[in-house]
Amino acid sequence: AWFDKARDDYKAGLALDANHLECLVGLAALNVLKSPEEALGLAERAVAAHPKSSHAWYLRGQAKIFLGKRNDGIDDIDKAVSLDASLQEQAIVLKSTPLEQILKERKGGG
User: For 85-104, what is each residue's pLDDT tens digit?
Assistant: First the structure.
């Protein structure tokens, strides 16, 4: 129920402002495991509209990794860390996790 409410709220925000950063990254974060394709599209919009947003870069990288585009995803994660060093620790964890484990977790088997 909370997931649907959050998704609906983010979508309502985007209906008012298609490039609203918090709505784009929030909706991308909600979708990154269940629908990384949708999350990637949202994160790409966020990066295009807000190129200095570390969270937009991080989510775009995360979505790419979840889609099996590990090297491209790591490049985006590194860009996010260059914009916000506080992301370093979680970036290390994501970058060091084997792709098979990430994909297994994405499918709900982790």
Answer: 999 999 999 888 887 787 77
11 by Cβ neighbours in 10 Å (0-12 / 13-18 / 19+) ranks as exposed
Task: Report the candidate in 18, 93, 31 with the shortest Cα–Cα distance to residue 67.
Answer: 31
The three-class DSSP label of residue 81 is helix
**What is the helix (H) or strand (E) element at residue 15, kind and residue range?**
helix 2-16
pLDDT at residue 106 in the model: 65
Classify 68 in phi/psi space as left (phi over 0), alpha (psi -120 to 50) or beta. Answer: left
pTM above 0.85, yes or no: yes
Hey, is 44 helix, strand or coil? helix
Q: Count of alpha carbons within 13 Å of 16, Cβ hemisphere only?
A: 9
Distance CA 46, CA 107 (A): 25
Backbone angles phi, psi at 100, to 5 degrees: -60, -40
